[in-house]
């Protein structure tokens, strides 16, 4: 099951914990992967770890031109882009009353607009191939909201509505578009939380623990597989029961 | 009929699965030949590939009929 041999996958934010785990899972299932991110060193390190079938494509997602070029570079490096995982994301938290236009727009630009550009950039190839998998990494806060994250939550909820709309348009061409919405996952981002903060968060998580990056990767692997061909426009919540949606 | 028109017709027939006789000068891809909006995008993609030309989005929107397509491609190639 879930054999991606011969498939080519582009993963953004592959220098981070979740993105790295996603790339590794797709690679282990046989896919060739293009690792994108802003920090080159972790991308190179991951590529070296994966060995063959791994390409490094650094990209700053706040640079519109670079984002438009990325799918082309990935297709040149691998031959096609059959699977696109939009995982990259940033936060600029602030209470709403103090949130600046810049904090709002930078988060929307990187999280939502770059996702849109990348989806658009891979669509032609997927339409021709009559096969494609797009997995957009949303967040539990896109569905529940979170104080201090009006911008982030808006961007993540926006991904869900956009994904459903694209899914409608291209379903008849064998292309699926889905979201995975992680809850609290152990990453460098959540490592910064204090023990008290973590304990507070975990009181709201029935599973009683943080999730692991590998558990997000497994959800992405499923949605990227041939077996998930009849699943489109949905959001797979991976959050330990924190929000049962 | 010109060579270009024959090649365009072949693409339309294959892509939309319609009878060749229906692909006439004024046949609208959507209204007469049963294409949906995605089909029209794919037709344009197929034309670009067949004739080695670029059809920008604003031009693509003006290509509504078989005649529009042959005219545009004849001028572009």
Structural class estimated from helices and strands of chain A:
alpha/beta
**In what order do the strands lie side by side in the largest sheet of chain A?**
3-2-1-4-5-6-7
What's the tally of helices of chain A? 9
Shape of chain A: globular
**C-alpha-based Rg of chain A, rounded:** 17 Å
Structural class of chain B: mainly alpha
Q: Largest beta sheet of chain B, briefly?
A: none
Element-level helix/strand string of chain A: EHEHEHEHEHHEHHHE
Mean pLDDT rating of chain A = 96
CA-based gyration radius of chain B: 11 Å
- Quaternary organisation: heterodimer
Could you walk me through the main structural features you see in this protein, from its secondary elements to its overall organization?
- The complex is a heterodimer of chains A (245) and B (77).
- With 245 residues, chain A is α/β, with parallel strands linked by helices.
- Chain A has helices at residues 17-28, 40-50, 64-78, 101-129, 140-144, 150-170, 188-191, 195-202, 213-224; strands spanning 8-11, 32-37, 54-58, 83-86, 132-137, 175-182, 235-238.
- Chain A is built from 9 helices and 7 strands, in the order βαβαβαβαβααβαααβ.
- Chain B is built from 4 helices and no strands.
- Chain B has helices at 3-16, 37-51, 57-60, 66-76.
- Chain B is globular.
- The mean pLDDT of chain B is 93.
- The interface between A and B is small, with 7 and 4 residues.
- Chain A: Its EC number is 1.1.1.100.
- Chain A: It catalyses: a (3R)-hydroxyacyl-[ACP] + NADP(+) = a 3-oxoacyl-[ACP] + NADPH + H(+).
- Chain A: Keywords: Fatty acid biosynthesis, Fatty acid metabolism, Lipid biosynthesis, Lipid metabolism, NADP, Oxidoreductase.
- Chain A: Pathway: Lipid metabolism; fatty acid biosynthesis.
Summed up:
Chain A has 9 helices and 7 strands; from the N terminus they run βαβαβαβαβααβαααβ. Chain A is an alpha/beta fold and 245 residues long. Chain A has a 7-stranded parallel β-sheet, with helices on both faces.
């Amino acid at each position: 099951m879930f054999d991606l041999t011969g498939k080519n996958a582009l993963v953004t934010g592959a220098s981070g914990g979740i993105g790295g785990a996603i790339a590794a899972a797709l690679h282990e299932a046989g896919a060739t992967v293009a690792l994108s991110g802003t920090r080159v060193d972790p991308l190179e390190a991951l590529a070296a770890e994966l060995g063959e079938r791994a390409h490094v494509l650094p990209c700053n997602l706040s640079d519109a031109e670079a984002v438009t070029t990325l799918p082309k570079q990935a297709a040149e490096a691998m031959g096609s882009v059959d699977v696109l995982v939009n995982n990259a994301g940033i936060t600029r938290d602030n209470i709403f009353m103090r949130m600046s236009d810049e904090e709002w727009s930078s988060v929307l630009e990187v999280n939502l607009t770059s996702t849109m550009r990348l989806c658009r950039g891979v669509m032609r190839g997927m339409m021709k191939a009559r096969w494609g998998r797009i997995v957009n990494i949303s967040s539990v806060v896109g569905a529940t909201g979170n104080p201090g994250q009006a911008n982030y939550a808006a961007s993540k909820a926006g991904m869900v509505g956009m994904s459903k709309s694209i899914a409608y348009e291209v379903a008849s061409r064998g292309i699926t578009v889905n979201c995975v919405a992680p809850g609290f996952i152990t990453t460098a981002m959540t490592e910064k939380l204090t023990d008290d903060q973590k304990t507070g968060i975990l009181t709201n998580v029935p599973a009683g623990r943080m999730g692991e990056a590998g558990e997000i990767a497994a959800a992405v692997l499923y949605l990227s597989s041939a077996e998930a061909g009849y699943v489109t426009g949905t959001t797979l919540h991976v959050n330990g029961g924190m929000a049962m949606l | 009929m010109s060579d270009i028109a024959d090649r365009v017709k072949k693409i339309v027939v294959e892509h939309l699965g319609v009878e060749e006789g229906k692909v006439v000068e004024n046949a609208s891809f959507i209204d007469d030949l049963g294409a949906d909006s995605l089909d029209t995008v794919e037709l344009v993609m197929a034309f670009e590939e067949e004739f080695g030309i670029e059809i920008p989005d604003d031009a693509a929107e003006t290509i509504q009929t078989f005649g529009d397509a042959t005219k545009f491609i004849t001028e572009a190639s």
